[in-house]
Design a protein that fits this description.
Helices cover 64% and strands 1% of the residues. The protein has 388 residues and is mainly α. Helix 1 packs across helix 9 (178-201), helix 2 packs across helix 4 (92-104) and helix 13 (277-289) packs antiparallel against helix 14. The longest helix is centred in the last third of the chain and has 38 residues, at 335-372.
């Protein structure tokens, strides 16, 4: 059984900030609503700024600066750094350092938000204690060479105050509701953004499925995705951290992915990294086959599995090629590109159906063997669905 590591001392600065945010949000609403009611201006300010802040953490701090999943235009980079500072979750440099360490040391004593220590610790407990594991911090030389990142790091407090406190107050003042702008646009926004981010470290390591890997506690959770603009597909993310998507499926809820895809089309983002379809499908097949455990599979069934595995890999490779061709055709933007994109769209539908049919045949065989082999079904906490 894992022995709990010694607890570092309390971080009273963080405790004070979190306490202040909770008191300001809850107490502020208690005073503001009875006297002013919730104005449309305050509601819209809160909704828009909350969305922009969560997006800046998701697309900026996380996918851009921590994982280099794409390249951003300087205007977009500056926007993400300014609005990200307004989340008061530290500078992008410090945030990315912690997050890279989380990926390098997941579920270990050096994981800054180690899920093994319990839901409370991974959600907020790690924030209220000082981090003394300086030796475990990964290198961030790429970020240390980035002038915009260094500018934000040096002036983080002032940038955060400007974007997180002054901006919502000014918006409220412009619409004649200074109190609403501050209470809803600043305090409530911060409260929501804190816990939306914290759920990725806590709930996404406890609730949901593990379709791609069981090597860590990370799980795919629609609930967390809904709270965090798509960051809840954590099992996929830990398996393929360089991918700009968290929800890789076309219909999985990942607004950050959709926005970045749009930014790619208009030139604000480029080089969006996509994990090859064959690698994703191979991970799915591996987890599905894990249902069989180490039980002996009859030779005839093993031959069928090998045949389907080969066919599945070929279909996944073909689908991946078509997706790359379609992305290139769309980015071309000219008449020939649009014509080619229309042709490829039809081919892509057929390729998806072909891969889906092979994958379903594979799953039926694996599940039949799972029921028939000695020892009975193996309990594997995964929920497998076609992802493309």
């Amino acid at each position: 059984m894992h022995a709990a590591p010694s607890r570092p001392p309390l971080d009273w600065l963080n405790i004070g900030l979190l306490t202040l945010v909770h008191v300001a949000a809850v107490g502020g609403l208690a005073l503001y609503l009875p006297t002013h009611g919730l104005s449309l201006a305050a509601a819209l300010t809160g909704i828009v700024l909350t969305g922009l802040t969560i997006f800046s953490i998701s697309a900026g701090y996380h996918r851009l600066f921590s994982h280099r999943a794409y390249e951003a235009h300087p205007v977009l980079r500056l926007f993400l750094l300014i609005m990200g500072a307004g989340a008061f979750q530290n500078s992008a440099l410090a945030w990315a350092t912690d997050h890279r360490r989380h990926h390098n040391r997941t579920d270990s004593d050096d994981d800054p938000y180690d899920a093994r220590r319990g839901l409370w610790y991974s959600h907020i407990g790690w924030v209220v204690r000082k981090d003394d594991k300086t030796s475990a911090r990964p290198a961030v030389h790429d970020l240390e060479k980035d002038p915009l990142v260094l500018w934000q790091h040096r002036h983080y407090a002032w940038v955060g105050i400007g974007a997180g406190l002054v901006l919502p107050a000014l918006i409220g003042l412009a619409f004649g509701d200074l109190a609403g702008g501050f209470v809803v646009g600043a305090a409530v926004r911060l409260l929501v953004c804190y816990h939306a981010t914290f759920t990725i470290n806590s709930l996404a390591h406890r609730l949901g499925s593990q379709p791609y890997s069981d090597k860590s506690s990370a799980r795919d959770s629609l609930i967390v995705a809904l709270l965090s603009m798509g960051e809840g597909y954590h099992n996929f993310h830990h398996t393929f951290p360089a991918d700009y998507r968290n929800g890789v499926g076309r219909y999985q809820y990942d607004p950050t992915k959709w926005i970045l895809h749009t930014f790619e089309r208009i030139g604000l983002a480029r080089g969006l990294k996509r994990t090859p379809v064959i690698a994703i499908d191979r991970a799915l097949a591996r987890m599905e086959e894990a249902r069989l455990g180490t039980r002996p599979v009859p030779d005839a069934a093993r031959a069928d599995m090998d045949r389907l595995r080969t066919a599945r890999q070929g279909a996944a490779a073909r689908l991946g090629e078509l997706m790359e061709q379609l992305a290139a055709a769309r980015l071309a933007g000219d008449r020939a590109g649009r014509h080619l994109a229309r042709q490829l769209t039809g081919d892509l539908k057929q390729a998806r159906r072909h891969l889906h049919s092979i994958a379903m045949e594979w799953r039926r065989l694996v599940r039949a063997l799972d029921r028939a082999l000695p020892g009975g079904p193996v309990a594997v906490p995964v929920t497998i669905r076609q992802r493309y």
